[in-house]
Every structure is written in C-alpha cells, then in structure tokens.
Amino acid sequence: MSKLSHIDEHNQPAMVDVSDKLATLREAHARCYVEFPPEVSARLIDGDIQTAKGQVFTTAIIAGVMGAKRTHELIPFCHPLGLSNCKIEIHVDEDKRAVIDCHCRVHHRTGVEMEALTGASIAALTIYDMCKALSHHIRITEVRLIEKTGGKQDFHGK
Hints:
- The protein is α+β, with helices and mostly antiparallel strands.
- It is built from 4 helices and 8 strands.
- The strands form 2 sheets. Strands 5-6-1-7-8 form a 5-stranded antiparallel β-sheet, covered by helices on one side. Strands 2-3-4 form a 3-stranded antiparallel β-sheet.
- Strand 3 (about 50) and strand 4 (about 55) form a beta hairpin.
- The longest helix has 19 residues, at about 115-130.
C-alpha cells in the first residue's frame, strides 16, 4: 500500500521535500462543469452570460488564472510555482453546462495538477458568484484531473 506523501514518519503533516527531484516539464489539465437552471441558461448569449457585474465567462477566465497562480497560498503543502503557462477555456456544451478546462505548465521539481484543479475550481466559483442573483440552483460538478505529464508518473484519465 502506498503511503501518503504529506505525512511524515511521525504521522504528522509535512511538506514533500522535492530538493532531490529533477526539474522537468510538467503539465496538467483539469476540468469541471457548471450546471445552470433554465433561468440562468436563458441568459446565454454568444457563448457568455451577461450580468450587471459584466461578462461572466470572461471574468471567470481571469479569476481562474489568478487562482492557479496562488494555489500555494490556498493549499497548505503546495510548493510555490512560477507557472510557465495557465490557460482556461470555457464553452457551453449540448446540455447547456459550462465546461471549464484549465491547462497549466511549469518546468519544476513538482507537478501542477493542484494548480490546474484550483484554476478550474476558481473559475467555476466565479461563475457561481456572478450568477447567484439569478438563481442559487447552480451546481458545480465533476472537478477532476484529466491528465498530467512529467515527473515520476503520467496520468491520463477518461
């Protein structure tokens, strides 16, 4: 059985020591969905939702990138990373859900999956915040890692 990486030999929380790892190109892709009730999806125009607060998806993209860059301030044992790239894309699928994809890249000793997951999550939370005046029945679902490469082990989800 694998041991948890953030627990030391005394069963105490600990940051992972990455000083002996090789710096390599590391990439991660995370996705989440935002499900809208009819009163919110009716506001979709040209691939975005217009509110008194502004364009929802455009604002969510900016917030998601900012969140990814600050992951280490939110998740206690994440290493601070100077991301080489963070790209968030939002589109509406056939079910009128917002699909949020966050792609992060860094050349470092540790991966960027937490940054990608945080970026997608913060973008989704921003959509919720900007649309909650229209309905509180908005749902953020399926926050998950799609893929990560670089480091000890790659991951390719379905």
